[in-house]
């Protein structure tokens, strides 16, 4: 009897205390710091110390040497100051601070800011441009901008975007190599009169720069005693209050007190109602609870060794070992959503491990999307997915077959281009195999949405493996398009998709047209070191084709064989058709593949003179004057920014027909 009384009393105390407990999300979102004394709270949150729901998506920080780190475009920035009232914060590039004595501007990577989250403080901030691989014999009036010979080979120069000598430096040096843009804060209320040169650039860059954030307002929630957060499942702001989460702000203290009193009384009544039966079910409950938790542990263990969507589920520890703790020397490349590392599994297989930047709602969607798509596809020219980590893993990791020969971009205008340029026959093979992979995707009702040379991998035999399906979308066969926020890579994005938000199979056709021009020219699709009207490769190519000046963009390394030049002209005409502004005038990928195969066969048979693209059954671009000919159509260029005109907080999509406009009909 004493045991029964003690158990009832303990249960009563438990229920009483539980009724007074704070909501777990409210407790979880208490401000934290990395050790430097600066409290981190909404819209920021610290990965590992706070739940992602305590901040806004894309605002996750990491602690490193007691400093909060924000990762932008695969670059670490130290967060130095946060002004929550003004919604401003200051950051410094960690690479600059760690290399004060030997810092060269070319060590820095260009960054892209998500306009829906961050904006540079234009009142205090400007851009500093760095030029590398410049000539040694520059004019004397440009010498003060000279940084020096950073790697004992190239010469670097720095200049502000508003400097009077910017154009001269760009003309004399800009086309020679890499151009890096760095945001710098000049202080002094804007400091527009301050000059940056080769002597003081390090000091200026070390100041960092200020940004303002764009996230849901938090004032009302904080003033009501709540802690701001975000529901990553519903993708909505939430105010975490002591009693429970609310939509905008917490309810009054009186209401909370009433709720607590009601909860206490209810708990008391419940205790006495249960007292007559608690003793008899005690042992049974204990047994069942033990069985339940044992079963739960086994299910979690099983999750790490079973399958997900038909592929193996790897543990985080195994992939950490395979990549030697994600050693930077193992990096194969990085993209918009993650860094790819070389790894070797315990069974000896060589793999490529993609490590997603953030574990938020959007990244989980892309993770699941890529897994689901790749597991349903089997094609010799598509990369194979070996497996992934569980969705509950501390990080989202995808495991692919390792393709050892880099990307097509590497071989055309990257690090491998100087070693041994691709022959024209190899480039034709790449074009045919990539087109074959896209035809297969379209037949499977899938739009890739990010076709580019960086996503076309090559094995040792230069066979194609198309990769990166994080942005891919399923297009049911009973709809003509998907209406969704434009995403993709500048220079490759279908201009009509960007303008009208209508994603179709022919959006991939446009991107493939850019790839064809890259294969002909060995130029990057988007390069700010080129003159303003030629930054976009598609615009440049169309201009040269219309002026019958294709020779100006053909890669000199390909030689001058007349038969080969004829083949290139045919491929260029095909690319021109793919780049048509009018979606209806573009061919399908199936038609593109047939044309490429026809060119390839005729070239090998020596009958290239007999073939013209115009003879093949494909949509013809419309012209205002039929006598003008095919190559006089005016083309709209791919946008240089794929988010500039999209202001919605959500990138949700709809299918079917969107309302007609004067442009998008």
Note down, in words, how this protein is organized.
By secondary structure, the protein is α+β, with helices and mostly antiparallel strands. Among the domains are: 92-213, no CATH class; 307-401, Phosphorylase Kinase, domain 1 (2-Layer Sandwich); 478-655, Transferase(Phosphotransferase) domain 1 (Transferase(Phosphotransferase), domain 1), CATH 1.10.510. The protein is 32% helix and 19% strand. It is built from 16 helices and 28 strands. The strands form seven sheets. It has a seven-stranded mixed beta sheet. Strands 15-16-20-21-19-18-17 form a seven-stranded mixed beta sheet. A hairpin with a 3-residue loop joins strand 17 and strand 18. Helix 11 (424-443) runs antiparallel to helix 16 and helix 13 (505-521) runs antiparallel to helix 15 (562-578).
Question: What attributes characterize this protein structure?
Answer:
single chain, seven-stranded mixed sheet, Transferase(Phosphotransferase), domain 1, 665 residues, Phosphorylase Kinase, domain 1
């Amino acid at each position: 009897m004493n045991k029964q009384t003690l158990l009832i009393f303990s249960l009563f105390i438990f229920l009483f205390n539980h009724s007074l407990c704070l909501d777990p999300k409210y407790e979880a979102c208490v401000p934290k710091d990395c050790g430097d004394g600066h409290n981190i709270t909404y819209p920021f949150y610290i990965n590992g110390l706070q739940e992602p729901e305590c901040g806004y998506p894309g605002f996750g920080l990491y602690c490193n040497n007691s400093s909060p780190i924000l990762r932008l475009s695969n670059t670490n920035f130290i967060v130095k100051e946060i002004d929550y009232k003004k919604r401003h914060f200051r950051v410094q590039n960690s690479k600059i601070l760690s290399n004060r004595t030997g810092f060269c501007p070319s060590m820095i990577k260009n960054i892209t800011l998500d306009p829906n989250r961050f904006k540079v403080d234009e009142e205090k901030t400007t851009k500093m441009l760095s030029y590398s691989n410049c000539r040694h014999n520059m004019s004397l009036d440009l010498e003060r901008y000279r940084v020096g010979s950073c790697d004992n080979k190239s010469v670097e120069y720095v200049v502000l975007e508003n400097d009077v000598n910017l154009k001269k430096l760009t003309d004399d040096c800009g086309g020679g190599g890499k151009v890096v843009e760095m945001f710098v804060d000049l202080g002094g209320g804007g400091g527009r009169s301050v000059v940056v040169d080769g002597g003081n650039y390090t000091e200026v860059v070390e100041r960092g720069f200020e940004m303002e954030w764009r996230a849901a307002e938090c004032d009302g929630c904080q003033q009501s005693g709540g802690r701001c957060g975000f529901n990553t499942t519903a993708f909505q702001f939430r105010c975490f209050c002591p009693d429970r989460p609310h939509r905008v702000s917490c309810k009054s203290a009186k209401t909370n007190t009433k709720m607590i009193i009601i909860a206490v009384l209810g708990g008391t009544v419940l205790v006495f109602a249960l007292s007559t039966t608690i003793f008899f079910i005690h042992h049974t409950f204990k047994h069942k609870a033990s069985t339940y938790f044992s079963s739960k542990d086994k299910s979690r263990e099983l999750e790490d060794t079973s399958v997900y969507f038909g592929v193996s589920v790897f543990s985080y520890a195994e992939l950490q070992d395979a990549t030697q703790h994600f050693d930077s020397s193992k990096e194969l490349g990085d993209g918009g959503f993650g860094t790819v590392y070389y790894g070797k599994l315990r069974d000896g297989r060589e793999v490529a491990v993609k490590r997603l930047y953030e574990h938020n709602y959007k990244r989980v969607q892309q993770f699941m999307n890529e897994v689901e798509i790749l597991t349903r596809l089997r094609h010799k020219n598509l990369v194979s997915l070996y497996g992934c980590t569980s969705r509950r893993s501390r990080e989202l990791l995808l495991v692919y077959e390792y393709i050892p020969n880099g990307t097509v971009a590497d071989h055309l205008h990257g690090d491998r281009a100087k070693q041994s340029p691709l022959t024209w026959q190899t480039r034709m093979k790449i074009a045919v195999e990539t087109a074959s992979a896209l035809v297969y995707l379209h037949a499977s009702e899938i739009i890739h949405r990010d076709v580019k040379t960086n996503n076309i991998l090559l094995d040792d035999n230069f066979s194609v493996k198309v990769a990166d399906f994080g942005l891919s979308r399923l297009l049911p066969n009973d709809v003509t398009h998907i209406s969704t926020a434009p995403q993709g890579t500048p220079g490759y994005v279908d201009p009509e998709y960007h303008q009208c938000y209508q994603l179709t199979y022919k959006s991939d056709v446009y991107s493939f047209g850019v790839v064809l021009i890259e294969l002909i020219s060995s130029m990057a699709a988007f390069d700010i070191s080129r003159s303003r009207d030629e930054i976009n490769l598609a615009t440049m190519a169309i201009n040269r084709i219309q002026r019958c000046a294709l020779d100006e963009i053909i890669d000199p390394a390909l030689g001058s064989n007349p038969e080969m030049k004829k083949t290139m002209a045919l491929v260029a005409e095909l690319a021109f058709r793919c780049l048509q502004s009018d979606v209806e005038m573009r061919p399908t990928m199936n038609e593109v593949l047939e044309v490429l195969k026809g060119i390839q066969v005729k070239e090998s048979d020596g009958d290239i003179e007999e073939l013209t693209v115009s003879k093949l059954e494909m949509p013809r671009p419309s012209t205002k004057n039929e006598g003008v000919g095919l190559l006089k159509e005016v083309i709209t260029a791919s946008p240089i920014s794929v988010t500039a005109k999209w202001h919605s907080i959500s990138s949700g999509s709809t299918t079917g027909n969107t309302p007609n406009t004067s442009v998008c009909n």
